[in-house]
Amino acid sequence: MINQLQERYQLSLLLLLGTIAVLGVFPFAVIRYLDGNLTASIIDMALVLGLIVLVAYAYYSKKIRLVGAILAIFINGGAVVIAIANGINSFLWVYPVFASTFILVKPIEAFCINVVAGISLVAMAEIFDIISMDSFIVTILILSISAFVYANHSLKQFRLLETLNTVDALTGAFNRRAMSTDMQAALSNSERNGIKQFLAILDLDYFKSVNDKYGHAVGDQVLKEFVKITTSHIRQYDRLYRFGGEEFVLLIPVVEEQQQTFIDNLRTVIKKNLKTPNGEEITVSFGVAPWIPGTTLDTWLQRADEALYQAKAKGRDCVVFNNE
């Protein structure tokens, strides 16, 4: 699903964190200006404006990963600078900043950023004439390690959720939810850039007879083996989805010169390697629809389905292209 679910989740966190940070820092910028602490006020306002610009850029560019990394470094650097410039009055901001870093980047990256920021504070801030450096180091380490463990666990849980949300439980192919999302993205890409793409519907021929003769357990194993064979003979960025029953959809996002030959070779490979328990060949029919201008998700699937119907009518075990 090309990490779209994760991107939306990270963007929502980024917007929430940015909003909280702006609302939290801006009043202090005003207070410090009114108190005559112009340096601290300027630093606070720079943080506020930087947060707004970076979050806005993330929202419009969708470059969540890049902006998250920049923002993590930016707010840690800002916390260090304001702590050095304003002393004890701003020192406590270090703790929420260090914790929020784990929301913005991967756990190990956040931990490294925290270590660098912590060392910078220890090396440059005179605040440790007032508070215990040992207490600060221990507290920061406990905070960072606890946040690291929690963030790492959350990342694993999110990846599991994403898998459950996008992968067919039986075969390991992507599911229809992932297919709809990826097809829409592929169509948008083609409309913008004119990139040629193929959509193919694959149907296992006479699959019902396999279930009737050998049972559904064997039928399920055949489907798993079909996915294994197919995914091992397509490119890394080609996507195979389970459409329903014994029907699958193959999205080929970048069409090369010999792509039609590639699809027919794939049909041959499946025929050669996919067998029933007694060694009989299991063939596959292909209905292929190249992208054409004005294609929608429904019409693309319909054209591929019409081509598949023609392949069945021709006797199965063949590839039919619908170029209209």
Structural descriptors:
alpha+beta, Alpha-Beta Plaits, single chain, five-stranded mixed sheet, 324 residues, elongated
Structure overview:
The protein has 324 residues and is of the alpha+beta class. The chain has 2 domains: 163 residues, no CATH class; 146 residues, 2-Layer Sandwich (Alpha-Beta Plaits), CATH 3.30.70.270. Helix content is 68%, strand content 9%. It has a 5-stranded mixed beta sheet, with helices on both faces.
Structure in a nutshell:
The chain is built from twelve helices and five strands. It has 324 residues and is α+β, with helices and mostly antiparallel strands. A five-stranded mixed beta sheet has the order 2-3-1-4-5, sandwiched between helices.
How would the blueprint of this fold be written?
Elements: H1 4-34, H2 38-61, H3 64-86, H4 88-91, H5 94-104, H6 107-124, H7 133-166, H8 176-193, E1 198-204, H9 207-214, H10 216-231, E2 239-244, E3 247-252, H11 259-273, E4 284-290, H12 297-313, E5 319-321
Parallel strand pairs: 4-5
Antiparallel strand pairs: 1-3, 1-4, 2-3
Helix pairs in contact: 1-2, 2-3, 3-5, 3-6, 5-6, 5-7, 6-7, 9-10
Protein name: diguanylate cyclase
Transmembrane segments: 12-34, 40-59, 66-88, 108-128, 135-151
EC number: 2.7.7.65
Domains, number = 2
Would you identify the regions where 5 or more consecutive residues have pLDDT less than 50?
Answer: none
Describe the sheet with the most strands. 5 strands, mixed
Distance linking N and C termini: 28 Å
H and E order: HHHHHHHHEHHEEHEHE
Mean pLDDT: 87
Number of helices: 12
Specify the overall morphology. elongated
Cofactor: Mg(2+)
GO molecular function, one term: diguanylate cyclase activity
Protein name: diguanylate cyclase
Domain GGDEF: 195-324
